[in-house]
User: Which sequence fits this backbone?
C-alpha cells in the first residue's frame, strides 16, 4: 500500500509539473496553436462574406467589381506582431489596389477576451494609422474558421477565376516581422506579383508568425 501511495504521489507531482510547464510554454510561445482550425487550402474557392467595416457599412468581396483578386489579412489592434506589420499592410494596399488586388483586413478576435480589439478601438486604430483599406470585424467569429486563420496577422491571397475567389497563397507577409529593413523574402508581395504577370505562385504556403486568435470559451 505504501508503495502504491508513493507511486501515486510521484505521478501527481510529475503531472502537475508537466501541466505548469505546458501552460508556461503556451504563454510565451506566439506560434503555439490554441485551437484547431482546418480552413482553406491553396486552390480552394473562398466563400464571400458580409462583415461590418469601421464606417458602419457592410462589406463583401463582391462589392469590388473591378478587382482581380484580394489580399485578405486577418489582423487586430493589440497584437505586437500585427502592429509591426501595419505600415507594411498599408504599403501593400497602396501598391496593389490600383492593380486590382486590394487589401481586406479582418479582425477575428473576440473583444470579450481581448478588449483592445473592440469595434470602437478598431475605429480609433484605423484613424490613428491612416488605414487605406476596409477594416472589418468578424462578429460571431464565423469567417476566420472558414479561412483557417490561426494567427494575427495571417494572409490569404485570392484571385478571381470564372467568378470564383481562388486561394493562391496562405501564410506570412514576409520573413521578418521585427524589422522591414531586414526582410529578404516578400511572400505576399511575390505572390501578387506573380498573379499580375499571369505566372504561377512559387511559394504558396509559409509559416505564419503572430498572436493566436482570441476565442471566447
Assistant:
Amino acid at each position: 500500500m505504501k508503495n502504491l501511495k508513493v507511486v501515486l504521489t510521484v505521478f501527481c507531482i510529475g503531472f502537475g509539473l508537466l501541466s505548469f510547464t505546458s501552460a508556461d510554454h503556451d504563454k510565451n510561445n506566439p506560434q503555439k496553436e490554441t485551437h484547431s482550425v482546418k480552413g482553406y487550402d491553396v486552390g480552394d474557392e473562398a466563400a464571400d462574406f458580409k462583415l461590418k467595416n469601421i464606417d458602419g457599412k457592410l462589406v463583401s468581396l463582391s462589392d469590388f467589381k473591378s478587382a482581380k483578386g484580394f489580399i485578405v489579412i486577418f489582423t487586430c489592434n493589440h497584437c505586437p506582431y500585427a502592429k509591426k506589420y501595419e505600415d507594411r499592410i498599408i504599403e501593400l494596399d497602396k501598391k496593389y489596389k490600383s492593380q486590382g488586388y486590394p487589401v481586406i483586413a479582418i479582425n477575428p478576435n473576440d473583444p470579450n477576451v481581448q478588449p483592445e480589439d473592440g469595434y470602437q478601438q478598431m475605429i480609433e486604430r484605423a484613424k490613428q494609422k491612416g488605414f487605406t483599406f476596409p477594416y472589418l470585424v468578424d462578429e460571431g467569429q464565423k469567417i476566420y474558421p472558414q479561412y483557417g486563420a490561426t494567427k494575427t496577422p495571417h494572409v490569404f491571397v485570392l484571385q478571381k477565376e470564372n467568378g470564383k475567389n481562388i486561394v493562391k497563397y496562405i501564410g506570412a507577409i514576409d520573413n521578418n516581422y521585427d524589422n522591414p529593413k531586414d526582410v529578404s523574402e516578400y511572400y505576399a508581395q511575390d505572390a501578387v506579383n506573380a498573379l499580375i504577370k499571369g505566372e504561377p505562385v512559387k511559394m504558396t504556403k509559409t509559416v505564419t508568425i503572430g498572436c493566436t486568435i482570441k476565442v471566447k470559451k
Observations:
- The chain has a mean pLDDT of 87.
- DSSP finds five helices and ten strands in the chain.
